[in-house]
Amino acid sequence: MSRVGKLPITVPETVKVAFEGAEVRVQGPKGTLSHDIPPDIAVEVEGGSLVVRRNGETKSAKALHGLTRKLLANMVEGVSQGFKKVLEINGVGYRAELKEESLHLTLGFSHPIVFTLPSGVSASVERQTVITLECHDKQVLGQAAAELRSFRPPEPYKGKGIRYQGEVVLRKAGKAMGGAAG
Predict the structure, then answer these.
(1) Across all residues in the chain, what is the average pLDDT?
(2) What are phi and psi of 109, to 5 degrees?
(3) Confidence label for 158 from pLDDT (cuts 50, 70 and 90)
(4) Strand 41-45 versus strand 49-54 pairing type
(5) CA-CA distance, 92 to 79, in Å (whole number)?
(6) If you write DSSP's letter for every residue of the chain in order, what string do you get?
(7) Dihedral angle at the C-alpha atoms of 52, 57, 61, 63, nearest 10 degrees?
(8) In sequence order, what are the beta bridge partners of 20?
(9) For residues 113 and 107, is the Cβ–Cβ distance under 8 A?
(10) Cα–Cα separations (whole angstroms), residue 27 to 13, 16, 80, 125, 130
């Protein structure tokens, strides 16, 4: 039995769960999300919580059991509380600015980068170097943060670039000045 898959998902009172065939729709104060349930997996509501069970002992059912449970748990958490990712910009002259539904980034290139936020993702910029992204869909939020980071990932010598808050960048030693080589 999957250790993750057998755990029940507690559903807050503000969240509504509906089943439409093989689709589960979760609606809450932050938005609505839906997910297609694989045929080897069964989802049931038992006393204010969701329980995920597998219909057989096939290899695919075992593989999808924990995954389906975690995806549903993320959906419930997303529509009730939402998710947040914080990105930090390090570097002289590097900064971000929020204009309407897009981020304008100055990252040392010859041109500014304009990043249009995906639908459902909201952003705020503090001190021009801290970007906070919020969304009810964890997958969309992670993809948007990864795309932002990909414009200038942190480099290993000075640590300049865009990094996740709390990310540790392994630093390399610079060129060592040798004596008289001859």
Answers:
(1) 87
(2) -85, 175
(3) confident
(4) antiparallel
(5) 38
(6) --TTTTS-EE--TT-EEEEETTEEEEEETTEEEEEEPPTTEEEEE-SSEEEEEESS--HHHHHHHHHHHHHHHHHHHHHHT-EEEEEEEESTT-EEEEETTEEEEE-SSSS-EEEEPPTT-EEEEETTTEEEEEES-HHHHHHHHHHHHHTSPPPTTT--EEEETTPPPPPPP-PPPPS---
(7) 100
(8) 23
(9) yes
(10) 11, 5, 8, 29, 31
Cα–Cα distances in angstroms (integers) from residue 179 to residues 136, 175, 176, in the given order: 58, 13, 10
Residues in the chain: 182
Please give the average per-residue pLDDT across 91-107, as a whole number. Answer: 88
Place of tokens 């769960």: 17
Residue 12 falls in which region: left (phi positive, over 0), alpha (psi -120 to 50) or beta: beta
The two tokens of residue 17 are 């769960």
Yes or no: say if 145 and 85 are a contact pair by the CB < 8 Å rule.
yes
Residue with tokens 């509504």: 16
Q: What is the pTM of this model?
A: 0.81
Q: What is the Cα 164 distance to its own chain's centre? A: 11
